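Query form — protein Titin

QUESTION: What is the three-dimensional structure of this chain?
INPUT:
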Amino acid sequence: FFILTGNPSIEVKSQDVIVVEGERLNVPLPFRAVPAPTVSWHKNGRELKADDRITLKSDYISACLEIARSVHADAGVYTLTLENKLGSTIGTINVKVIGLPGQCKNIKASEVTKDSCKITWDPPDNDGGSPVLHYVLERRESGRRTYMPVMSGENKLSWSLKDLIPNGEYYFRVKAVNKIGGGEYTELRNPVIAEDPKRKSFLTFHQLSGACT
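ANSWER: The structure tokens for Titin are given below.
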């Protein structure tokens, strides 16, 4: 009988793959090659070796890249090279790893009065590989353990509250949310005390005067 020989060929020359951080990546690449080719993998131009997370498999008809528990560092361009005595070919996999966004930064309180305040924050440095969809802002009254939402579903970096109780103490926290879910909260370090600026200045002066007598 006759065996057809020929240059190696990969059915899909290039493909984009998205994997969620922490999940398994499994990408098979079917090919044709007679005689059987040598198989090599590279990531971003550097040779890729199997380890405790990365498995590189191949047989006579396919090669497979497997990565257990994907992390952001696994993102990149992976190339499969097949070569036999008749020629060679290359297949490319563009891997994108997405996950939860990082923590928001620089949460601050301003424009504080006896019944209102404004909370602002900066977006996280890392959006998890997927755009931030909205933010969740919560508050907790001093003496209570439970936070209550005051803003959700809004893609804003500030929020004004106008229902504070005079002289009440409030803690605030905020998190970013993308299509994978919500990141970790960032908490306001010091509580917001609901009082007018003039009254606060008077109390401070009065307290200092009393301390000097």
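ADDITIONAL NOTE: Residues 114 and 166 are 5 Å apart (CA to CA).
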